[in-house]
Amino acid sequence: MHVVATAGHVDSGKSTLVRALTGMEPDRWEEERRRGLTIDLGYAWTTLASGQEVAFVDVPGHERFLGNMLAGIGPAPVVCFVVAADEGWQAQSGDHRDAVAALGIEHGVVVLSRADRASAKRMGEVLAQTRRELASTGLHDAPAVAVSATQGTGLAEFRDALEGVLAGVPAPTTTGRVRLWVDRSFTITGSGTVATGTLGAGTLVQGDVLQLIGHGDARPVVVRGLESRGASYPSVSPVSRVALNLRDVSADDVRRGDALVTPNAWPSTSLLGIRRTTGAPYTEVPEQIVVHVGTASVPARLRPFGADHARLVLDRQLPLVLGDRLVLRHPGSRSVLGGARILDADPPAPRRRGDSARWAERLVSMDPAGDVLGEVAARGAVQEKHLRRLGLFNDDDPGPPSAVRVLGEWWVHGPVFEAWQQRLRAALEALRARDPLAPGLSMGAARDLLALPDERLVPHIVRDAGLEQAGGHIRLPGGNGGLGAAESAVAELERRLTAHPFHAPEADELGALSLGARELAAAERLGRVLRLRDGVVLLPSAPALAMRVLARLDQPFTTSQARQALGTTRRIAVPLLEHLDSRGWTRRLDAGHRTVVH
Questions:
Q1: Do residues 490 and 479 touch, judged by C-beta distance below 8 A?
Q2: Which residue among 119, 135, 485, 557 sits deepest, i.e. has the most Cβ atoms within 10 Å of its Cβ?
């Protein structure tokens, strides 16, 4: 199926044309049929001679209903632009032209309607003016057909022209994430809530769980059933008009402008960086505007960065990505101000003075088609799944740029990664010079120092920088340095324990050597001493020496027998035996006996 939206001034005959082509009544409201004036969106469909199915979204032409018109044309890839041959180009034609230009629509048919009311000369003049007006849009070379829907003339030629246009429309993506902009919601007795929209990409399957992003909090919804062209289907592919029967949600909770999206696959944003594509320079645009995207209409504040770039703050969050097209509308005059493309759908939050100015400078060089390296460089580090949500990376891409380091789920800009390494090493060197006894930097301190987005990046930096990580701390290779003033005291302690391995010094002896808890902890980190409970300090070789003695005892042995064999006191023997137990070298059998584990 293809979806075609109408466009054109009020009373140009758009609905009459759709009615003649499809045999269906696009005006859904009694008031519309009574007044002969389309107020809201209408829907109809038909099958062309080739078997190609086409759904039409009929839009109002009156300026008072420009918002409804934009909701209909926004998601449609093809336009049928209608100008009445007897009346010619009208003011509302200009609004619709500006909308087509803003949305970047490049496929369509120009229809001169009510051909029975105009002479051949008049139709030539109207067509010439229409060509001039559409020259700056994607419809500048669109085929043109003269039609009288009431008499049926020109309808066959229109169908042929439409067939040709549709043959040139690029095939939609049937896999991947879904974003369906809701244009209508209602309740059917016995079925519940139904939401309709134009499916432009991805495939919907009965039973799918989608996320509703709208005027309230995002919430999951289940697709209970699918319908397209008046028939039920187990799945629907793009491009299609589709009605979704939703479970566990009220029709009042689903509105035009909401979006049904694949969960966790789209960003939800209210802050955008944009580039002007059509319309007045941003320096001439009012601060308070209305933004149209998909079927949504959202008040917004615009801050220009020169004539062609701006920051846009929406009143509510929407699922938007890089390259999405926006229509900017004046809230008072109902006129289209111009079009824009999103360059940055998720700007990094400013943290330092000048960040906003730097972001504005970056917008000028950004590509709406996507720049993975630029995005990673701007953030320093970003998760791959976030790049996918922004539409910057997918499974068909060759992989990360060469200047990007992949660290687990994170993509890190190479120069940023190198700067992190240098800064961490410099901080450790400064710490060693300032405090040789310090254990190093904790993981949390390292993350804070480097302003990392995730602590899991720290081990990668440590490894590539040639640093060490032990006991929850990061240090320079070989420890955080020497022992400074405590070096001679530790050396004296080592000398004493070498002579008498199991004669651990008392607290007053350690105090006399000026070896407190901090000095002993530093010595232990360097592998110079072993600290056991109750303040017992031995050499790291003491456990192995003890095992040689204990292995010669009759098994099992008592604590007293071990103490005597080691030539030490109970104060030292008990913590040493418990240490051997913890290493699995000895096993405690009961309150008084142990055995060596062979």
A1: no
A2: 557
Instruction: Extract the tokens encoding 120.
Output: 């051949």
For residues 466 and 534, membership in a common domain is answered with no
**DSSP secondary structure of 492-527:** HHHHHHHHSTT-PPPHHHHHHTT--HHHHHHHHHTT
Q: pTM for this structure?
A: 0.74
Domain contains 149: yes
Number of domains in the chain: 4
Domain residues for 398?
371-481
**Is 270 within 8 Å of 315 (Cβ atoms)?**
yes
**344 close to 273: Cβ distance less than 8 angstroms:** yes
**Residues 559/549, Cβ–Cβ less than 8 Å:** no
| Same domain assignment for residues 450 and 532 | no
DSSP state of 148: B
Size of the chain in residues? 598
Give the span between the Cα atoms of 479 and 482, in whole angstroms: 8
Does one domain contain both 406 and 508?
no
Tokens of 571: 């104060």
Domain presence at residue 274:
no
Alpha-carbon distance 325 to 418, whole Å? Answer: 37
The per-residue DSSP string of 419-444 comes to HHHHHHHHHHHHHHHH-TT---EEHH
Bridge partners of residue 222, in order along the sequence: 209, 247
Residues 493-550: pLDDT tens digits?
Answer: 888 899 999 999 988 888 888 787 877 777 777 778 899 998 899 999 999 999 999 9
pLDDT for residue 37: 45
Question: 261, 291, 312: which is the final residue of a domain?
Answer: 261
- The continuous run of DSSP H or E covering 382 comes out as strand 381-383
User: Same structural domain for residues 31 and 130?
Assistant: yes
> For the ranges 13-27, 365-379, 447-461, which has the lowest average pLDDT?
365-379
* Confidence (pLDDT) at 527: 77
The mean predicted confidence, pLDDT, of the chain is 87
Answer for the pair 537, 530: CB distance below 8 angstroms, yes or no: yes
User: What pLDDT score was predicted for residue 32?
Assistant: 42
pLDDT band at 35 (very low <50, low <70, confident <90, very high): very low
The closest of 419, 513, 514, 530 to 464, measured between CA atoms, is 419
pLDDT tens-digit map of 238-276: 999 999 999 989 988 999 999 999 999 998 999 999 999
Q: Which two tokens stand for residue 393?
A: 């990376």
What's the distance, CA 589 to chain centroid? 59
